[in-house]
Structures are given as structure tokens and as C-alpha cells.
Amino acid sequence: VFDISSLSWKNPTYLRDMPEERCAAAAVVLKNKYLVVIGGSYYDGSAVTASCLLYDIWSNHWSSKQSSTDMIEARQYHTAAVLDGKIVVAGGEGRDENVLASVECIDADALLEYAPLHYPLPTL
Length: 124
Prior knowledge:
Elements: E1 2-3, E2 8-9, E3 22-23, E4 26-30, E5 34-38, E6 41-42, E7 52-56, E8 61-64, E9 79-83, E10 86-90, E11 103-107, H1 108-113
Antiparallel strand pairs: 1-2, 3-6, 4-5, 5-7, 7-8, 9-10, 10-11
């Protein structure tokens, strides 16, 4: 992680607590609170994935997302950007190392709908 206030690289321990280690993934920031890690391949190289991981920057907590928010195609070495409330994912390499010429959109609100609560809801 690059700290823009000190202009230096940091190795925060909380990033090591990801539910699944990934490489060749894309990442975007949503609502200045969530880091979304999209696709990539498992660190051991066993498979390319279509799933998303969500990191809540404020509560320092990782979570896996519902399969309904997964991309249609598993991909690695792709790019992603946030545009009009959607995460736009483009290109990359799919399973069997085939190059992808497709673009997918993930609805950011649907993804955050599954963000875990870290404080109990008030009772009535």
C-alpha cells in the first residue's frame, strides 16, 4: 500500500487476512470505504476465479461476496474502474489462458447490499 501522506510504501498486516489469497486480480475503491478485489487467480495457481472480495477500510474487515455478484466469466490480468455506480471490468485472460475481449458490469449497490454489519441492529 502506498501512503500518500508519507510518500512511502507500507506493508499493512490486515491485507494478509484476505479470505482467499489472490494474484492477477483487479481492485477498485467504492464510496471511499470499500476495497473490492475482483477476479484473479488463487495464489497457488489452482484456478481463475469470477468472485469478488470486499474489504471494509473503516472496520478493517474482509468478507467474501454472494455468488450472485460474481462475474459471468472468470478472469485474471484484467482491469476495472468505477463508472456511474457500476464496476466495469474489461479484458484479461480467462480459464485455459484464453484472451478475453469482453466487458462486464457489476452493480456496486448490489455488491454492497451484502456487506456485513459489524454492529448489531437496534432492537424495537
